[in-house]
């Protein structure tokens, strides 16, 4: 338990004033402008890394560094009180401990709730245990000792008979930070019944149970996802049975059911976007522009998407990258003479071009490399073209704003907005298919804490280096936004 710190009291007025400014501008930004400020400034001045669990800011000067590199700064300046740029906790370098102060905590909680209110999330409240809570806590004698080697959130899954396709998707979902935070803070309010009830058929509740098993269980035994399989069979009839299924097909079916079950008891008003956790994380918007080749009139439609399926070409290229596939995806193409459109301006059917661009990027981007195709003989064929994918990717070149600006349609203001915005994503999970179309097996790589990679092959988990991940074939690629900002 953090203790009272006398070093805070010595310069309390200055430290609290600086803390209030820091927590409202950097830690819990209330505007897109402040979010961009956080993106630019939160980087260790020594090792220049960003994605670290304990990135801190000095409360006496603008120094930003990871906790590991704050020692020299303290020795040179005597500035001993710092604050985490992630959650706002104070830390005293002299005491070598976190600082708990009622006033500081109330400021932090208010700033966090203002931030969460802006994002449309539930508010945090101080927990005052009720008498019944106290009785439960007194009976709960089991305790866990967490060490630096404790691997919470990493657990094997038993293959129930050709269910490797499901296991890989579960493993990928469990590693998504925002989804983890959602379930472990008990934000899912089920409209079908209580979690754990035998007659509860809610897939969100079952996923919540899996998160609890991965992060709260004190066993290294593999988890048996029999109830998840049963619910998938119940809600997605085409996936029922013990034959091998496609991991991408399972992902889309699972997201669809999770989306339905995560909606509130009262459906959203017509015309309003869904605010459920699935849509917040996975839904992007795809813009389709049809251009009449005779008069130049553009007809635009915008549709939601959960994933992006990318063609791999005709197999002649031996050096293909994910960026190549995305560039081809957003490239303008002629529809041909056999697919003319009815142009409202011309009043006749005319030849046209079609272009797809990413209107709105999701927080979790899933790329489906189309490795399976049907031949003219209606036989399934696997495409084994190597596709190199990066650890980090900037999706700006494939957005609608960028593509229209590049063609001279955009304005200087749009260009400025593009420069300031961040559409950088980090690789989180890779699902691979080994074998052919007749017999195959799915396994996956997942990124866990401290950017350590693991290969998960059903119940077998092995540590891996990044180079092995990037050298794998790749079927489904999950990327998460490096810096999350909400409109």
UniProtKB/TrEMBL annotation:
Keywords: Hydrolase, Metal-binding, Nucleus, Protease, Thiol protease, Transcription, Transcription regulation, Ubl conjugation pathway, Zinc, Zinc-finger
EC code: 3.4.19.12
InterPro entries in UniProt: Papain-like_cys_pep_sf, Peptidase_C19_UCH, Ub_carboxyl-term_hydrolase, USP, USP_CS, Znf_RING/FYVE/PHD, Znf_UBP
One GO process term, biological-process aspect: proteolysis
Gene Ontology cellular component terms for the protein in this record: nucleus
Catalytic reaction list: Thiol-dependent hydrolysis of ester, thioester, amide, peptide and isopeptide bonds formed by the C-terminal Gly of ubiquitin (a 76-residue protein attached to proteins as an intracellular targeting signal)
Protein name as it appears in the record: Ubiquitin carboxyl-terminal hydrolase
Organism expressing this protein natively: Bursaphelenchus okinawaensis
